[in-house]
Write a structure and sequence with these properties.
The protein is α+β, with helices and mostly antiparallel strands and 583 residues long. 45% of the residues lie in helices and 21% in strands. The chain has a six-stranded antiparallel β-sheet with strand order 3-2-1-6-5-4, sandwiched between helices. Strands 9-8-7-12-11-10 form a six-stranded antiparallel β-sheet, sandwiched between helices. Strands 14-16-17-19-18 form a five-stranded mixed β-sheet, covered by helices on one side. It is globular. This is Histidine kinase domain-containing protein.
């Protein structure tokens, strides 16, 4: 390994010492700042004009993470670039060889009979990227960053064509950096991304469990969004078979980039070797490519017997036709056909990158369990209803017929004991089904909030939470609510406050976030006031207030907000403690 010059070694060590401070932000802004600092340093080292860092880890997003041109960040959030093609061009050569590559002129013809891989890739490149990033440069150096034998990232440095070419000494320097610091720095970045992924999965699964427990319609698009966010999939389809086992309707959620759409496939009978069947003859996960037999069969059904609107048919067909590589992950559990998720890409030969990372794999397993729970709750509820009607009525009719036609028979101890046992069995089955019903409860809101905040303190040790209960000796702060829906409200408020606090952390150091909750009684209601020490951030709907209003209204409450400083007030009617049981 090449020895690094002392001044460059010091700057790398100083950068490494700075990185742990950035990891405390726990959001993508810290990743962006980290990547920019690394790339700016490497650009200075070799006097490059343009630098790029690409993420190539299997099981996660495969994309360009940072592009700097002339000392300015060129790649902006939301810039509509074409999909990054890591298996093609000179990057593809680096991935296949595992070695860095120095290209003296990316536009020059190959000295051998082989075609220039960069020229072959031109038709698939984004026009803006091609004109502003590739056309001005000639000399380029691509260096892989490895974790063990796996390449998890690549760094690309280029000089304008009117400047001296990058040299072999530059390649040796970048190799030395990659070996000594590259993996450590990328591990920090991946660690932050993993924590973000964990939080995404955690929030979505908690929301899903609360909706199931609340008997509220599940927003499946929000659940399936995790598969798009936590994988390298840029297009995909999820098939969900909720409700009873006998139902032939399938819920389809498709995505293309960030756009998602939900469609109900009515009377969707399954093919003999369909991946939606829990069939022992099939081995999951199933890998495939565009236009294979499975994809052709599905497209044929779209054009045939499915009763769909033209808009829904067009969307599903377009998504399916764009698929070039895919992996099907089943949602089956305990012999229940619950559906499947197709992680796919518009990129050829991309299957290796579509593997689930550990967080998504855990999310997928838990999602299967929730779907199974939903089906079991549906079945139990249906059994309970049938036990009640016609079950009890049939048993009552049987007793009446015996009393009328054969009074001596009903007096037989064996017969009467059997009928009593049947009555007890039906009552037990009916009560078991009622156990899973959604219920409203009286909640001592002050004690409930204290317990919730104590748990939050463990999850967020870098935060301060303060609960101020006015007239704390009062024991009648009772509200009637569904606990899961109440958790959803408070969780959303805290999540929005955390975003505002993270915005402040980016601009103020050191800084400790704080959320204050004030609880008091007023005009026959319990009023909660939430306030944080964060700063405003860009929102579409003002901290998600429309969604909160709907949930709070369903619970009989009201919500209003103030600005300068931002405060959120919730009001719930007080409940007489004799009306319902307490928790």
């Amino acid at each position: 390994m090449m020895e690094m010059p002392q001044e460059k070694l010091r700057s790398a060590v100083d950068l490494l010492a700075k990185i742990p401070e950035l990891t405390n932000l726990n959001d993508m802004s810290s990743v962006d700042m980290m990547l920019c600092d690394v790339l700016e340093m490497l650009i200075r080292w070799v006097d490059a004009d343009i630098g790029q860092i690409n993420m190539l880890s299997k099981g996660g997003k495969v994309e360009k993470m940072c592009v700097i041109k002339d000392g300015t960040i060129w790649l902006k959030k939301g810039m509509p670039l074409h999909l990054f093609q890591p298996l093609k061009g000179f990057t593809g050569h680096v991935l296949s060889s595992g070695q860095s590559m120095l290209i003296r002129d990316i536009w020059a013809d190959s000295p051998t009979k082989e075609k220039n891989p960069f020229i072959e890739l031109l038709p698939e490149m984004d026009e803006k990227y091609l004109n502003e990033i590739k056309k001005p440069v000639a000399s380029t150096l691509i260096v892989p960053i490895k974790r063990g034998n796996d390449i998890i990232s690549s760094i690309e440095l280029s000089r304008y064509r009117d400047k001296t070419e990058l040299a072999e000494k530059d390649r040796r320097l970048m190799n030395a950096f990659a070996e000594r610091f590259g993996t450590i720095i990328l591990d920090y970045i991946i660690d932050i991304k993993n924590r973000i992924n964990f939080n995404i999965a955690h929030v979505k699964l908690k929301t899903l469990s609360r909706l199931i427990a609340s008997n509220v319609a599940i927003e499946y698009r929000d659940v399936i969004e995790a598969y798009n966010q936590l994988s390298a999939s840029d297009v995909g389809i999820a098939f969900i078979r909720s409700g009873s086992q006998e139902s032939t309707d399938v819920r389809l959620i498709g995505w293309d980039g960030d756009y998602m759409q939900e469609v109900i496939l009515e009377n969707f009978t399954l093919s003999e070797n369909s991946s939606l069947r829990d069939d022992a003859t099939q081995s999951f996960p199933i890998e495939g490519c565009g236009e294979d037999e499975r994809m052709r069969r599905f497209l044929s059904r779209l054009d045939g017997d499915l009763d769909l609107s033209s808009a829904d048919r067009h969307f599903i067909s377009t998504c399916t036709q764009k698929i070039c590589s895919y992996i099907i992950y089943p949602l089956h559990l305990l012999s229940q056909d619950l559906g499947a998720v197709v992680l796919a890409s518009k990129r050829q030969g991309f299957v290796d990158f579509l593997q689930m990372n550990p967080f998504l794999s855990l999310y997928h397993s838990l999602f299967k369990s929730f779907l199974l729970n939903e089906r079991m709750m549906h079945n139990l509820s249906r059994i309970s209803l049938k036990v009640h009607n016609p079950g009890f009525y049939v048993l009552a009719a049987l007793k009446s017929a015996l009393i009328k036609r054969s009074p001596q028979t009903i007096m037989d101890p064996d017969i009467s004991q059997a009928l009593a046992g049947m009555d007890a069995l039906l009552s037990d089955l009916h009560n078991q089904g009622r156990l899973v019903c959604c219920s409203m409860k009286n909640i001592r809101i002050a004690g409930w909030l204290r317990a919730y905040i104590n748990q939050k303190k463990k999850e967020e040790p870098g935060m301060t939470f303060k609960l101020n209960v006015v007239d704390a000796n009062r024991a009648d702060n009772l509200i009637c609510a569904n606990e899961e829906r109440l958790e959803t409200i408070i969780e959303n408020i805290f999540a929005n406050s955390m975003r505002a606090i993270n915005e402040k952390k980016k601009k103020t150091k050191p800084f400790r976030g704080q959320i204050d909750i004030d609880l008091r009684q007023k005009n026959g209601s319990v009023v909660l006031c939430f306030q944080d020490n964060g700063i405003p951030y860009k929102t579409i709907s003002g901290r998600g207030l429309p969604q909160l209003k709907k949930i709070i209204k369903d619970l009989g409450g009201t919500v209003w907000q103030y600005h300068d400083p931002y405060r959120l007030h919730l009001s719930f009617p007080l409940i007489n403690p004799t009306q319902r049981r307490l928790i």
